[in-house]
From TrEMBL:
It comes from Streptomyces asiaticus subsp. ignotus. Keywords: Coiled coil, TPR repeat. Residues 18-73 form the HTH cro/C1-type domain. CDD domains: HTH_XRE. This is Helix-turn-helix domain-containing protein.
Length: 411
């Protein structure tokens, strides 16, 4: 049998990568346990793959103790197996999208033909198509559109002036958001961070206060991902204060306020403050009730449905299996079939993790497969799905579970 460090990284568990990082520091398991506050028994079970190391707050605790990025534990980005043709298609545009991001802020130097063909109506339609692929979790199609779209938007910034130029910046910010989501779903965290910086800069050029604040929703998410809860909280608090200071209660303002309360609830959940997390969820639900329906302002889906989905996500983030399963059984029944596949797939991923925490492994696999049907590549690339599947395979290699693990590339 190959030594664990000789195994392809995608087939290793997070615990095996944790052990490798610990040994790099020349720490024993006891020292790691003392540094993180977890028991020696828990550290052993994580490293041996007997306990799923999939919760963000736990991964962050270990990454801070070992002074590494969380992706060094989760193993992202993953490379799809050669047999996964759709997965290979999804990652095919990563390099071209990265190059487009690196060209940001530089003179576009358009050819005469590019300048002459700059068409605002066409750009609106193309950005709408990109967002459709983003919400539909069609990563290969989204990646295929982005390089040329970002180039043409960068050219349009140099071609148009006045109000039209400000609108192009709005479209460019949306294009960068699509790039950020594309890269994030594929586990390219550093590239996704670069895209987020481009979103912030482009949104600022629109001179639209709400558009600027919507960009900071993603900025807070970047800090939350690496466990900088205070900094993320400061961005969220500033945004909520700015929204409260606006006089008119437009639907866009209400929607954005609710979205920031959801982000605050996630920040507190990962900081293991369950009371504060629930408090902000309630505030988000109040905003959703004011709206009375689901909206998609600034491509931030918010409304009663998204609040219901987040009500499952929060206990999952805190490892509260029973509470998450109780909520999931109610939410899943009422989930609109026309709701964005990207959001529905993420809901089923959370449901699967909830069932796993609750000891219901068959139900967990069933939920993961539902997520995979809705968003194949995003599900197979999801760190939590891969780690949880790994751990279930360690305890029982049922045929259906093994086949799912093969599609993920973890066996």
């Amino acid at each position: 049998m190959p030594h664990q460090t000789d195994m392809p990284d995608g087939t290793q568990t997070n615990g095996q990568r944790l052990k490798r990082l610990r040994m790099r520091h020349r720490w024993d398991q006891r020292k790691l346990a003392e540094a993180t506050g977890y028991s020696l028994s828990a550290v052993r079970k994580f490293e041996q793959g007997q306990r799923s190391l999939d919760r963000a707050d736990v991964i962050l605790a270990f990454s801070k103790a070992l002074d590494c990025h969380p992706t060094e534990i989760t193993g992202q980005p993953y490379t799809p197996p050669d047999s996964d043709h759709d997965g290979q298609a999804a990652i095919a545009s990563v390099g071209a999208v990265r190059r487009a991001l690196l060209r940001h802020g530089r003179p576009s130097r358009p050819t005469e033909q590019e300048a002459a063909e700059a068409d605002l109506n066409a750009l609106r339609e193309r950005v709408a198509a990109a967002n459709g692929h983003r919400q539909g979790a069609s990563l290969a199609k989204l990646g295929g559109l982005l390089p040329a779209l970002l180039r043409d938007l960068q050219v349009a910034v140099d071609v148009f002036t006045g109000d039209q130029r400000r609108e192009v910046y709005d479209l460019l910010a949306s294009g960068y958001e699509c790039a950020m989501q594309y890269l994030y779903k594929l586990g390219r965290s550093s590239d996704a961070t670069l895209a987020t910086e481009r979103v912030l800069w482009s949104a600022a050029q629109t001179e639209d206060p709400l558009r600027v604040l919507s960009a900071h929703w993603y900025d807070a998410g970047e800090l939350l991902t690496i466990g900088e809860h205070d900094e993320a909280g400061a961005i969220i608090d500033d945004a909520l204060s700015g929204l409260a200071a606006m006089s008119a209660d437009s639907p866009e303002k209400v929607s954005l306020t609710g979205a920031f309360h959801l982000k605050a609830s996630l920040n507190y959940a990962r900081a293991t403050d369950s009371k504060a997390a629930e408090r902000h969820l309630k505030k988000a639900e109040e905003q959703a009730e004011l709206l009375g329906r689901d909206r998609n302002d600034y491509e931030l889906q918010f409304g009663p449905t998204n609040c219901a989905i987040w009500s499952v996500s929060l206990p999952v983030e805190m490892g509260q299996g029973q509470a998450a399963v109780r909520r999931a059984e109610q939410v899943t029944q009422s989930l609109p079939k026309q709701y964005a596949p990207e959001r529905r797939s993420h809901h089923y991923i959370d449901v699967g993790r909830a069932y796993y925490y609750n000891g219901q492994h068959d139900e967990a696999l069933e939920a993961f497969v539902k997520a995979e049907r809705l968003a194949p590549q995003a599900t197979r690339m999801h760190a939590g799905v891969r780690e949880t599947t790994h751990t279930m395979l360690n305890s029982h290699r049922r045929t259906a579970l093994f086949e799912f693990g093969m599609r993920l590339g973890v066996v």
